[in-house]
Amino acid sequence: MDAGAAKKPGTLYVVATPIGNLEDITLRALRILKDADLIAAEDTRHTRILLRAHNIDTPLVSLHEHNEKERSVRILARIRGGRTVAYVSDAGTPCISDPGHHLVCAALAERIPVVPVPGACALVAALSASGFPADAFMFCGFLPAKGNQRRRFLETLRNVETTLVFYESPSRIAAAVRDMCDILGDREMVVARELTKVFEEIARGRASEILSRMSEAKSRGEFTVILEPVKQKSVFPADEDLRNELLRLVDEKSLSLRDAVALVAERVGMPRKKVYAIALKIRRNSDS
After folding, report:
1. Is 102 helix (H, G, I), strand (E, B) or coil?
2. How far apart are CA 287 and CA 162, in angstroms?
3. How far apart are the first and last CA of the chain?
4. 10 in the Ramachandran plot: left (φ > 0), alpha (ψ -120 to 50) or beta?
5. Which residues contact residue 122 at a Cβ distance below 8 angstroms, ignoring those fewer than 6 apart?
6. Cβ(180)–Cβ(227) under 8 Å?
7. What's the rounded Cα separation, in Å, for the pair 1 and 104?
8. 68, 72, 86: which is closest to 26 by C-alpha?
9. pLDDT value for 76
10. What percent of the residues of the chain are helix, what percent strand, and what percent coil, each to the nearest 5?
């Protein structure tokens, strides 16, 4: 071999790990984690549990959202020197609403081989058991944390005609489902939490029904939320017809305006927010 020839770089493996149940890992992933020169992990404490369960003693280094840019430089230097590095996030597939994107992009920019090792992924697991069409779907990741930003983002999804998939945190799940119901309509929904774990739960029903159940207990565990595709667009009733129907329900059925709005919105498949705007006009006219 020519002494002056550049040394062939190693490989960066992007390895999917279990999202809960430690048995949900492929034989290939175990082999690569065992044979790698180094494992870069989002949380080394979390990853050690997995490695101990499978008798793997490969050296570990942390790489998470707060040190990813700095640590990537050191990791890529080792790969350029011919070392093999496996990157894992806490659970599931790295870079899917998890750290790793910067590391992968930096490796690709240097023409370092990046090899995916597929496996567990919460959105795919939940989607497979949802009963909703999955030939095409839109994954939206985590919704914005602030309410006004979240609602503006949901507005952009109003006319998306495929199944919608979101991730959400325990502290924001109720507010997120409420906004989905108001903006995207009271659609059929699946909410999965703690997938593959001891307390796994998959709830099904209309968004309003699931929301009412959430208010009864404190939510725990990361959530995957799936909404059925928007119904094929039909010609909605004219505002005047909706106004007359709301007045009829209030006058003849003795419903409150709020209850009438909910009933009409469900019947015609319109977002409750749109029907409520018509109801506000009725209220203003009656007050004048």
Report:
1. helix
2. 42
3. 93
4. beta
5. 19, 91, 92, 167, 192, 195, 222, 224
6. yes
7. 30
8. 86
9. 96
10. 40, 15, 40
Q: What is the pLDDT of residue 245?
A: 84
Predicted TM-score (pTM) of this structure: 0.76
What confidence tens digit (pLDDT) does each residue in 153-177 have?
999 998 899 999 999 999 999 999 9
Q: What is the distance between the alpha carbons of residues 249 and 217, in angstroms, rounded to a whole number?
A: 33
Please say whether the beta carbons of 115 and 35 come within 8 A: no
Query: Which residue, among 146, 228, 132, has the nearest Cα to 187 in the 3D structure?
Result: 228
CA distance 187 to 260: 18
Three-class DSSP category at 246? helix
Of 4, 3, 8, 15, nearest to 80 by C-alpha is: 8
Assign domain 123-227 to a CATH class: alpha beta
Confidence bin at 276 (pLDDT 50/70/90): confident
Query: Distance (Å, rounded) from C-alpha 243 to C-alpha 251?
Result: 12
Asked whether the predicted pLDDT for residue 1 surpasses 50, the reply is no
- Can you list the positions of beta strands (E) in the chain? 12-15, 38-41, 60-62, 85-88, 114-117, 137-142, 163-168, 188-193, 201-206, 223-227
Mean pLDDT of the chain: 89
Domain ranges of the chain: 12-120, 123-227, 239-287
Name the residue with higher pLDDT: 17 or 1: 17
CATH architecture of the domain with residue range 12-120? 3-Layer(aba) Sandwich (3.40)
